[in-house]
Amino acid sequence: MISLVPLTEARADDIEFQTGMTQSYFKDFSKELGAALSYKALSPAEPLGILGFDVGLEVTAIDIDQGADYWNKATKNADMPGMITLPKIYARKGLPFSIDVGVIYSKVPDSNISLLGAEVKYAILKGSVATPAVAIRGSYTQLMGVDQLDFKTYGADISISKGFLNITPFGGIGAVWISSEPKSLPAGISLNKENITAMKYFGGVRFTLLLLNMTAGVEYMEVPTYSIRAGIIF
Q1: Cα separation of 100 and 120, whole Å?
Q2: Which domains, and CATH codes, for the chain?
Q3: How many angstroms separate the first and last alpha carbons of the chain?
Q4: Tens-place pLDDT, residues 10-63
């Protein structure tokens, strides 16, 4: 089972596949789960630099289709919230040759559910006072501690950003490959693995003040997701 935290409640809603969960429902459910758990592009395209380091906290809120049959068949909770949230910690490190690497980790409160992710980003153009930065990124996330689901996402995107004083807007487009494989299903439920490809579109803005930075971002992939990140960059 997987647990996600409602935006308005301090408890976990455990998802357990119920009788009536069809393959079609499972595919739709996997798409929305992929939108929630895929790696979020929450940094400008410009590289950190070989000495650069960025660490902090982030939260992603997902606007789900709470009335859809596939959510009703994926959880015992008959009153799913309209939004679910995922708290995370993150860290990014600059490397030589305009490469940045990053990791995220999430532990959902009141559950044994955790999420691990990683990214590698390469700045094709570093950017300057007069020109924007352009970068390509590869990413991966793995859901852990789930009884009934082996779930992974793989992502690739291209982004552009341009700083103006201490504000840096950014945006991009990419693709996400979702691997969603059911396991240890209860009697009466038969589901097969789904491999799904989805496009994503994202944008955001980063605000920096001395060593502090705050980033707000929006992504659309099947459903909209909204993220806020706050950290220290040096």
Answers
A1: 6
A2: 2-233 (2.40.128)
A3: 39
A4: 334 566 788 888 899 999 999 999 999 999 999 999 999 999 999 999 999 988
